[in-house]
Amino acid sequence: MSDPVVRRATPDDADAVAALEAEALGRDAWSPGLVAAGVSGEVPTVTYLVAEVDGVLAGYAVGSVAGDLAELQRIAVGAGHRRRGLASVLLEALVDLARDGGADRLLLEVREDNHGAAAFYAARGFTEIDRRRRYYRDGATAVVLLREIA
Predict the structure, then answer these.
(1) pLDDT tens for each residue of 62-101
(2) How many structural domains are present in the chain?
(3) Which helix (H) or strand (E) holds 90?
(4) Rounded to the nearest 5 degrees, what angle is found at the Cα of 123, between the Cα atoms of 38 and 79?
(5) In terms of Cα–Cα distance, which of 103, 97, 50, 41 is closest to 74?
(6) Which CATH number belongs to the domain containing residue 127 in this structure?
(7) Sorting pLDDT into bands at 50, 70 and 90, what band is 136?
(8) 3-class DSSP assignment, residue 150
(9) Other CB atoms within 10 Å distance of the CB of residue 85
(10) Is 111:128 a contact under the CB 8 Å cutoff?
(11) Model pLDDT, residue 1
(12) What is the pTM of this model?
């Protein structure tokens, strides 16, 4: 595997990002139309980043920056590319984007029962600041995490 290339998504990436979204998030996935609007820049403050490996779109991250606060809205890596550091590369690219946009904090929500993701974020400096009960469609709780990025 060659080193991943991380770049801003373009409208040409919409179908591949929507497919990864559906694969990774199932019934909580955003619609292809919403993904297309996001990658084309129609959603204010939102940026999609994609990671390519050997010319294949292998993962993506979605972030929003508004003033001093940024939010990681999505991050996903295709099944055939997991456990190779792509999520870390995407997360750090999003941190850089947020910092460059003036943010000094990055927030995200993770399912309470997603222990792997919780450990991933804890290892990268995120701490729990709140919980949102019944946040997901199936009634699961979201854990709100924060990382200082200044």
Answers:
(1) 999 999 999 999 999 999 899 899 999 999 999 999 999 9
(2) 1
(3) helix 86-100
(4) 50
(5) 50
(6) 3.40.630.30
(7) confident
(8) coil
(9) 14
(10) no
(11) 62
(12) 0.92
Q: Quick check: 105 and 146 in contact, CB under 8 A?
A: yes
Three-state SS for 134?
coil
* The residue to which tokens 């009960």 are assigned: 133
Termini Cα distance of the chain? 32
Confidence of residue 3 (pLDDT cuts 50, 70, 90): confident
- The β-bridge partners of 59 are 51, 77
To the nearest 10 degrees (0 to 180), the angle between helices 14-25 and 32-39 is: 130
Contact 17, 50 (CB under 8 A): yes
Residue 140 belongs to what domain range? 5-148
Beta strands in 43-86 (DSSP E): 46-53, 56-66, 69-77
Please tell me the distance from the alpha carbon of residue 44 to that of residue 125, in angstroms, as a whole number: 27
Using the predicted structure, report yes or no on whether residue 113 has a pLDDT greater than 80. yes
Residue type, 38: G
Residues 6+ apart with CB under 8 A from 142: 109, 110, 111, 112, 131, 132, 135, 136
> What three-state secondary structure class fits 105?
strand
